[in-house]
Amino acid sequence: MVNCEDNFYSPTDGKLDYTGVVYKIAEFIKSGNDFVHQVVVGTDSKPSNSDKGVDFITAVVVHRVNKGGIYFWRRVNKTKNFALTERIGEETVLSLELATKLRDTFRHNGLSAYEPEIHADVGENGATRDMIKWVTGMIIGSGFKAKIKPDSYGASTIADKHT
């Protein structure tokens, strides 16, 4: 579960808590009021190098369409070893938790127009192709838009950069 004390990191602003992330998102969107913005949440994972479970990286991306963007990420280590299906399921749950918290926060901060979409680290090619319906069903069933590879840059590019 995401709480206000969770540590997030930004390439621009360094270490922030959840409240700081929301503040920076609001500031960024308001500074470019004339532009279209998309808020994206995506998670990627990698077994830990030290054999201590799996590192999950969840990224929040605010894309100012055709004008760049900003992002924040956090790391959660789960000491259990996961099979691929379990890892993809956990990635999806972590993305859903953060997207739900952002959506609820945005509704109280004048940002309700910026509904997060979730980028899943699954695609038509490779070992995750049989999981697409399951993962997108979880996301859509929770009230969010779902993107998969090659369009899921929040998970497959931004979060992946920090795994």
UniProtKB/TrEMBL annotation:
It comes from the Bacteria. Pfam families: RNaseH_like. This is DUF458 domain-containing protein. It comes from Candidatus Woykebacteria bacterium RIFCSPHIGHO2_02_FULL_43_16b. The lineage of its organism: Bacteria, Candidatus Woykeibacteriota.
